[in-house]
Amino acid sequence: MIETKNFQGKPAVVSPPVTDFLWAFGPTNGTLLSDQLILSPSGEIKGYSHPNERSWRIENYRLLILNEAGDIMWRSVEAFKDPEGLLTIVLEYPGNPETRFILKQQATLASAATIAPVIKPAEIQKTLETTVLPEGLSDADFLFPPDLEVTPVKIEKVLLVGSCLTALYHEQLQARHPETKFDYIPYNFVSVLPDAPPSPTSDYDFQYLQIPLRSVLSDRVIWGFRFNEEGFTKTILQDAYSVIDAMLSSAMIYNERHGLLTFVSNFIVPQMSTASSMYERGSNNDLTTIVQRLNDYLNEKVASYKNAYLLNIDAVASTIGKRYILDDLVYFYSHGAVTYQDWDDFGSIARNEPIPPLETVYPVKKDAFLDAIFRQMVTAYRTTKQVDQVKAVVFDLDNTLWRGQIAEHYRPEAQPWPRTDGWPLGLWEAIHYLRARGILVAICSKNDYDYVKTRWDDVIEPKLISLDDFSSVKINWTPKAQNISEICKEFNIKPKSVVFVDDNPVERAAVASALPDVRVIGGNPYLTRRILLWSAETQIARMTEESGKREEMIRGQIEREETRSTMDRSEFLASLNCEVSFINITSTDQPEFGRTLELTNKTNQFNTNGQRWSFENIADFLKAGGKILAFKVKDKFTEYGLVGVLYLKGTEITQYVMSCRVLGMEVEEFVVAEAVKLLRSARSAETDITATIKETPDNTPCREVYLRAGFRETAKQEGVRQFILDGDEVPMLPLHIKKA
User: Fold this and answer.
1) Residue 156 CB neighbours (<10 A)
2) Where is the signal peptide (predicted)?
């Protein structure tokens, strides 16, 4: 309860004395927007600037916060103190009372003033009323944003293979990350790795391989004058390519034998040109050019291996600043390692002038570099395992895809219009790069659709994006959470696979309240592009045919559903001209294998046990006699690509995974019939076929698939449902589907 019935900035006694505090402000279940907000005695809100929060007053024992139009944006519903006696005021949005923000007491203005006692009293209030700038992001978080992470991953054990730089990783990362066990195998020149690593291969989450640049180039490049010799550079490059081939082949034995997930570091390019003259900088006689070419070659070679990926350590070093990292300011250009003052004996040999600590002339960012390298490993692991993967990004329009409001700031008579350079253009480009990764993009905006469509080309200048670029467009006055739910249904995805970008904290909080699994961003436009493009959760390990065609498939699917609503079920199914083609996956070398693994690990709803598979797991499953039956679907609307996988062993369907985009077409029963046929073909036509379903929170759509296919259910075993198709029974076979 806030005492004093009415307060509008005039002198009055307010209890508690809300004007005496700094307040933290933000959503109850999200990141706070400010910890410097001040409820000024004048009735203004200071220390935090947003059109939604401009002034305040107390009325009928409630704290009211008003927007710039003077309308009530927030009203208090509860106030309480924590064990330390600090006050929290809970606020609700009148338009949606479930949307809650808080004001949380930070410190009194008087105590805050003591933080900087050198400031004169008259300057204290002015200082407090300015927004404090954030300290900035760490290099690791800048390069590899954590904003879209939901599920933590624990890296249990890593195998490090490499030379001097990897030895530093082993020494330092083990101390910095004691929760992870690091094994190390030194690797220089074209040496042979042990037949088995220090621990069983299956114990490692991944191996990290660093081929030493000095071994690849050899010490011939130290004699720089030799680059003036005709043919020397050509010899260096040809020999270096051969050494990379040999070293990579030897170092990849655990990957090739056991399918161990492998990350390969590229080379750090020297900081400055080594050419003999300015004219030759960037030429084949420049070592920087040679190392860049070696990186290109290494990238091509790593791509030829299965379950292996190149990590760009050179980009990490460049972003942090090679002057703070790379040792070529002291050591050889070909050494390619981190500056670390462990070469000196520090006084054991007399010198006229003692060697000072390296940091006095070269500030070293070894720790920041190591943090970024480990973070790069972790995020690459998250991407390959598809942890928290984003499948769709939904954008607001006003103050998100353009500055200002289309109905207010872009009127023909209101000139000049807001600028269109900077962050809006960056987001327009980001939309296309997300689409290139197979991530769907949509619009969800409170606006008039016809007005936006009419004015789109006026506002979007240059014309880099159009409404047709978005797979779903919801421009209306419906609550955004409801629109996003509809988008999820259209895309056949769960809310946890969606990111919502909106500048308005109230809208973000409303969506987060109604759909807690949706990730919401967009408050700071200078962060949005980087988060969307650089996060592990928006990266794709390998593009598949289906990923590239996802947008086209979704458009066809939406058209299909619109047709479905105009016809009865049997008529609709008969009209589909549906065809299913089957692929037997017998090897990880098959081109369809990548999509098989992706689909298995992305699918939650139609997944009969929720099991995730690694590359190594599937390779072992096939070696042990397991069969994998994959299938593609097409109808008159679109080709859906490879949309389902069944794991078969003996006489059992052990797991059945299917994309929900073809759910309801009776494809799921048709495919079970084909699996039964395949399992019986190796035995007798009257063999009993079994299947199981382990219920998960998400897999409701597949729980009756075997019953619909003609199986009968038997007693559960350890909570797992058991099904059997007796040998004298044949599965149900939908007649409107053809086998291609």
Assistant:
1) 11
2) none
Edge-to-edge strand ranges of the sheet holding 652-658: 712-717, 720-725, 689-693, 652-658, 639-649, 627-634, 578-585, 737-739
Beta strands in 216-265 (DSSP E): 262-265
Q: Which two tokens stand for residue 624?
A: 């042990």
> Which of 108-117, 303-312, 490-499 is the least confident region?
108-117
Quote the tokens at residue 56: 């305040």
Q: Going by C-beta distance under 8 Å and a sequence separation of 6 or more, which residues neighbour residue 652?
A: 679, 689, 690, 691, 692
Phi, psi angles (nearest 5°) of residue 557: -65, -45
The CATH 3.40.50.1000 portion of the chain extends over: 392-538
Q: How many CB atoms within 10 Å of residue 373? A: 25
Q: What is the mean pLDDT of the chain?
A: 88
Cα–Cα distance, 731 to 707 (Å, whole number): 10
pLDDT band at 3 (very low <50, low <70, confident <90, very high): very low
Radius of gyration of the chain (CA): 31
Q: Contact, 100 vs 92, CB < 8 A?
A: yes
CATH architecture of 157-347+359-384: 3-Layer(aba) Sandwich (3.40)
The amino acid sitting at 688 is: D
Q: What is the pLDDT of residues 175-197, one digit of tens each?
A: 999 999 999 999 987 778 999 99
360-378 tens-digit pLDDT: 888 889 999 999 999 999 9
Q: 529 φ, ψ to 5°?
A: -60, -45
Helix, strand, coil shares of the chain, percent, nearest 5, are: 35, 25, 40
Contact 2, 63 (CB under 8 A): yes
61 torsion bin: left (phi>0), alpha (psi -120 to 50), beta (else)? left
Task: Tell me the three-class secondary structure of 100-124, residue by residue.
Answer: EEEEEEEEEHHHHHCCCCCCCHHHH
- Residue 738 neighbours by CB under 8 Å, 6+ apart: 578, 579, 580
What is the location of CATH 3.40.630.30 in the chain?
Answer: 567-739
667: Cα separation from own chain's centroid? 32
pLDDT tens digits, 681-738: 888 878 999 999 999 988 999 999 999 999 999 999 999 999 999 999 999 999 899 9
CA 723/CA 43 separation, integer angstroms: 69
Task: Quote the pLDDT of residue 116.
Answer: 37
Report the top-level CATH class of 392-538. alpha beta
Instruction: Specify whether domain 567-739 bears CATH 3.40.630.30.
Output: yes
User: What are the residues facing 689 on neighbouring strands?
Assistant: 725
| Rounded CA separation 664/564 (Å) | 11
